[in-house]
From TrEMBL:
One GO BP: lipid metabolic process
Major facilitator superfamily (MFS) profile domain span: 1-323
UniProt membrane topology term: Multi-pass membrane protein
Gene Ontology CC annotation, any one: endoplasmic reticulum membrane
Subunit structure: Interacts with isoform 2 of BSG.
Keywords tagged on the record: Cell membrane, Endoplasmic reticulum, Lipid metabolism, Membrane, Symport, Transmembrane, Transmembrane helix, Transport
Region (Disordered) residue spans: 326-363
Gene: SLC16A11
Functional description taken from the UniProt entry: Proton-linked monocarboxylate transporter. It catalyzes the transport of pyruvate across the plasma membrane. Probably involved in hepatic lipid metabolism: overexpression results in an increase of triacylglycerol(TAG) levels, small increases in intracellular diacylglycerols and decreases in lysophosphatidylcholine, cholesterol ester and sphingomyelin lipids.
InterPro entries per record: MFS, MFS_dom, MFS_trans_sf, Proton-linked_MCT
A Pfam family: MFS_1
Protein name: Monocarboxylate transporter 11
Catalyzed chemical reaction(s): pyruvate(out) + H(+)(out) = pyruvate(in) + H(+)(in)
Amino acid sequence: MVGGVLASLGFVFSAFARSLLHLYLGLGLLAGSGWALVFAPALGTLSRYFSRRRVLAVGLALTGNGASSLLLAPALQLLLDSFGWRGALLLLGAITLHLTPCGALLLPLALPGDPPAPPRSPLAALGLGLFTRRAFSIFALGTALVGGGYFVPYVHLAPHALDRGLGGYGAALVVAVAAVGDAGARLVCGWLADQGWVPLPRLLAVFGALTGLGLWVVGLVPVVGGEESWGGPLLAAAVAYGLSAGSYAPLVFGVLPGLVGIGGVVQATGLVMMLVSLGGLLGPPLSGFLRDETGDFTTSFLVSGSLILSGSFIYIGLPKALPSCGPASPPATPPPESGELLPPPQAVLLSPGGPRSTLDTTC
């Protein structure tokens, strides 16, 4: 709830900016702090609400990103034409304030597997002890590299379309179709992951690699006809990238409970978001620098795709990311449907042989 207020104030203050420094402080520091306080608790709490269909639930929640991109891409262009960038920021601040009542609807749950007492040391409170687990360290390193390229299309896909000869609304259409593919893929991949047919780390590595390859394709699309052109090749490449990136997104957070246990999922989500943000802090400026040096975004997208591919390669070190040489075991039977939404999950979360949570396992 506090994050919603801070993010809204960041947009509102930025609407009255008189210099670039004001935008750094408003959009970067204030709104960025608000997003940090919103995202990790929301995704971490959601992972604790669900057991059997956790990845689908995460994918459904993250569909909001795709839906907002779909709606806001043309809407923001209209707002910019009608009210200018200051009016657009004020309206975005009003929309962002709705995060506060949304946060009021999230209720904390006490689950088996939670620490018996609050952590006393600062390191334990921040969850830094999770880095002592090999699987989480591999996951964190791979995700940080992916974050270096993952956010580049969110910032530079529309300018890339403009460089390729499309007009303002044509560029917005490219962003919109990528968002449609992204949103739809999050739902489909969430359902697929929850079936247990393929281990989550393997899906994570595969769809991460496809995301990097999709970004390469977006960067290599040739110049289109002109401002009146629909940019068919670039639209197709944007859809392909959106499908792969959307499939990757829910897996990042869906795999965490298996790596750290349900009791550490909120801390793990916060740490992962910190690492992703560090990558995202470097990626778009590097992309802009490469564009200034080369004259277009081709090199930018190729470098960004290479970062994503590098992170996906590191995911291969996760347990079950590679097929084993032994006989294939059948998928684990999921908890009964009555235990999907928690509480009361006691009969579902506790293993028959003892009080240890069945979710507090490794991949």
